[in-house]
Design brief:
It comes from Niveibacterium microcysteis. The protein is an alpha+beta fold. It has a single domain, classed as Alpha-Beta Plaits (2-Layer Sandwich). Helices cover about 30% and strands about 35% of the residues. It contains 3 helices and 4 strands; from the N terminus they run βαββααβ. The chain has a 4-stranded antiparallel sheet. α1 runs antiparallel to α3. The longest helix has 12 residues. The termini are close together. The mean pLDDT is about 95.
Length: about 100
């Protein structure tokens, strides 16, 4: 199992309740219905207010490295990336278990 963790920090001037952030979240939330390689999926805006915290968190699971790689290039995933790119900065990491 591969656990894929993504942290997103909204860019200055982009609010959590902005149309762009809400649309990106809705698209992110819908990915498990569109990408068959996804096994587990939790995403949403950070609920801990702290200046050091990131604004959005995704924790997802994939059966294998190959499944994760297929997700990375899946057209539906790329559409979601295109929504987040102009409004946020990204950090991610993967764990194998």
């Amino acid at each position: 199992m591969i656990t894929h963790v993504v942290l997103l920090k909204l860019r200055p001037g982009v609010a959590v309740d902005s149309t762009a952030a809400r649309e990106a979240h809705a698209a992110m939330s819908a990915l498990p219905t569109k990408v068959p390689q996804i096994r587990t999926w939790q995403c949403g805006f950070n609920t801990t207010p702290d200046v050091c915290g990131w604004d959005y968190v995704l924790v997802s699971g994939f059966d294998s490295r190959e499944a994760l790689e297929a997700y990375f290039v899946h057209p539906e995933h790329l559409k979601v990336v295109a929504l987040w790119e102009p409004i946020s900065d990204l950090a991610f990491g993967d764990l194998e278990s």
